[in-house]
Amino acid sequence: MWEFSLNVRSDRERIVQFFIENISKSCLYMNGIVTSHEENGYTSILMAVEESFCGEAQRVIERLVTQIICTDFKYAFLEKNLKIPMHDKIGMTAFKKALLNFDRETDKFLVLKNLEIGHSLFLDSFYEFRLGALKAKWTELVSLANENRVYLISNDAFLDLLKFLIDNIEICEEEVSVVENEDGFKILLEDEGDTTYNNVTFNEEGLVSSIIDLAPQKINLYCTSNNKAVDLLGKIFDERVSIHSDKTLMKKF
User: Fold this and answer.
1) Is the pLDDT of residue 241 over 60?
2) CA distance 13 to 224
3) H or E element, residue 19
4) Torsion from C-alpha of 212, 146, 127, 68, nearest 10 degrees
């Protein structure tokens, strides 16, 4: 059997849960097992698979670790270091999400360049001592925003910068549709019908956050009312947004 352990600070509950859930799914078809235990403030997530699945397991671990660093760790970095004028909650969520996704392929490259999957990995130590170039890149991005904080007091300037960031995020989905119902908003992925999104109802903040994550080439809006989320999406995605009055799609939800 090939064995691996990921060691994470126990107070990083979301990361622990995310890794356990996803590695457990992968282990199902690799005839593997997953367990965890907590000791001295750290949670050790242990997995074992048959030797024939070693390479595949390493690739899954690489993908999950990279995603954790480029989302959870980067978001915490932004929260700690970003010092710009406060705008409304939806606008600030969009701005942080745009920074989070900005140049993400380079972020992933820098993580993978320094990531070696042996039999154990201490996640916090890997981040602190092996990813200096990545943190320097994030520092430069945050510093640029902070240095222009006086300029960003203006709503128009803030939206201009947000639109610039959005325009420079790599496209992930060709087309998505946003449908408003009495409970909130649903997102339909046109190409794949991904149930991860189709079965979830989003509030305004969650809608904006998810659309920026998806970075679609085209957004169809089937919305019955004007609100901050729809208005903001129209401004920052600009020509990529199409507004539809046809209620046929709404009835499907």
Assistant:
1) yes
2) 38
3) helix 13-28
4) -10
Strands (E), 11-116: 33-39, 42-49
Average pLDDT estimate for 142-147:
93
Distances (CA, A) of 124 to 9, 65, 169, 193: 7, 11, 27, 36
CA dist., res. 34 & res. 172, Å (int): 31
Distance CA 44, CA 8 (A): 6
Alpha-carbon distance of 210 to 199, in angstroms, equals 13
What would the mean pLDDT of 73-87 be, rounded to a whole number?
Answer: 94
Closest to 131 (Cα-Cα) out of 61, 63, 70, 64: 70
Distances (CA, A) of 74 to 15, 19, 79, 128, 141: 13, 17, 9, 12, 11
Backbone phi and psi for residue 43, each to the nearest 5 degrees, phi listed first = -105, 125
Between helix 123-130 and helix 54-68 the angle, nearest 10°, is 70
- pLDDT score at 243: 84
Please tell me what DSSP assigns to residue 154: S
Q: What is the H or E stretch that residue 209 is in?
A: helix 204-214
Strands 33-39 and 216-222: unpaired
Structural tokens at position 57 = 């397991």
Q: Which two tokens stand for residue 32?
A: 């593997």
| Burial category of 156 from C-beta neighbours within 10 Å (exposed 0-12, middle 13-18, buried 19 and up) | exposed
